[in-house]
Amino acid sequence: MSAVSKSATPLKAAFAPALARFFSASAPIRTPSSATASSSQATTGAAGPATASAAKSNAVGGQAAAGSSGQAQQRTKAQRFTLDPATAPTQPKFPHGFLATGLHCGVKKDRSKLDLAVIISDRPCSAAGCFTRNAFVAAPVTVSKDVLARQNGIARGLVVNSGCANAVTGAQGLEDARAMSDQLDSFLSASSSSDGTGTLVMSTGVIGQNLPIKKILQGIETSTATLGSNFSAWSDCARAFMTTDTFPKLRTRTIQLGGKEVRMVGIDKGAGMIHPNMGPPGPPHATMLGVIATDAAIEPASLQSALTHAVDRSFNSISVDGDMSTNDTVVVLANGASGIHEISADKTPAEYEQFRDELTDFAAELAQLIVRDGEGAEKFVRVTVNGAPSYEGAHKVASTISTSSLVKCALHGQDANWGRILCAVGYSQPGFEIDPTKVSVSFVPQDGTPELQLLINGEPENVDEARASEILAEEDLEIRVELGLGDEGATYWTCDLSHEYISINADYRS
């Protein structure tokens, strides 16, 4: 294949070496089509909170023991949760057909901190996104939604800067976000192997400041020298997403789908200003960003449906401080390079449901890393609400408990003040009447020992305060609420509210 046409511009010429390396090793270009999917091998859901699994995920070994207050807590979050091939239970396998990099371009003052990430595919991808519902939508959110609409759910690249959110920046902000997209599109169009382009954009950092756009555009051009498909390239990419994060949030997963091995890689970031409420592109309705790239083949509308389902049960089910960002974005790119036939919710419903469930579970794993890294957080708390008439109602109750400042302060102080939990349940307004005589509440330790019942059908138990203190002293615990009104349930993940959180956010801009 010819990497660059004879009439290439100087910018395209600068991109040529990377394109030549990339496309010479790539499979023929395949544009997402409506091909019929092959029958899927039966597999269970991916390992994580939703289902037990035979899928291979490389969650760091230390994460399994995170609930222990002993040796695990003596190690830093970065030591326990950063993906390290030397200690991971399975070696990372990155999806075919993608390249990634991360570098310092000058958004951040500290040259040792990466601030620009680039991901590209060797062929057009089905693309989907879920975006913040904050009224002050950041410029990169607007541009990414426009790209998805204009390209009918097809894209090939993603560019991310950290250190400046490009939010509430007016017309200049929109111009800068479009320039970032156009710059990477110029890279992608430099190859004669495909006419497919489409670059999504993300930004994170301080709100109300303009981007140093010249530095970013130069950085995108420079990125071509470091694009790669190995662990180092993806690790640098993940580090370039970080702001107040204490560790890069990078994970991979392999599954069997349609008789083929399908790979996923996920990156997200976030530690503060975390209470996402994202939806699919549409009319308006410190930041959480996420991207999942996969070599699965799935038609764009089905990918959007799967992502919307996944985000509601993962990224929309976490809270650090209750603040929804102007920039929250999660995107998925699926390029079909695994060789499987295209999946469709209508034509191959069984394979679609398997993919959707695997995506949901992987997204939940990534989302939980954000709570683990919550600014100043010392507790990782699962809030489970069962016995509701609807999923939406259970989700609302779990969200209300998770965002209660009084509950979060009690968790930090290791105070078994379960009355605060009940108070939050009572004012949650889930869309149905709460019957206090049917509500039960328990603390559930994560070491396999029995739960500690606090309230049963509205009647308080004689609580063993010493046992309650033991459970609350652990890093990981679960608050379980039974409403006694139906068969639906939902899960939220949250953390405590510490003195350190205040210190971090009081000095954020300085």
Automatic annotation (TrEMBL):
MF annotations from Gene Ontology: L-glutamate N-acetyltransferase activity; L-glutamate N-acetyltransferase activity, acting on acetyl-L-ornithine as donor
Chain residues that bind substrate: T243, K269, T287, E375, N505, S510
UniProt-listed CDD domains: OAT
Residues the UniProt record annotates as site (Involved in the stabilization of negative charge on the oxyanion by the formation of the oxyanion hole): T204, G205
Keyword annotations of the record: Acyltransferase, Amino-acid biosynthesis, Arginine biosynthesis, Autocatalytic cleavage, Mitochondrion, Multifunctional enzyme, Transferase
E.C. numbers: 2.3.1.35, 2.3.1.1
Family (UniProt): Belongs to the ArgJ family.
HAMAP family: ArgJ
Name listed for the protein in its UniProt record: Arginine biosynthesis bifunctional protein ArgJ, mitochondrial
Organism (species): Rhodotorula taiwanensis
Taxonomic lineage from the root: Eukaryota, Fungi, Dikarya, Basidiomycota, Pucciniomycotina
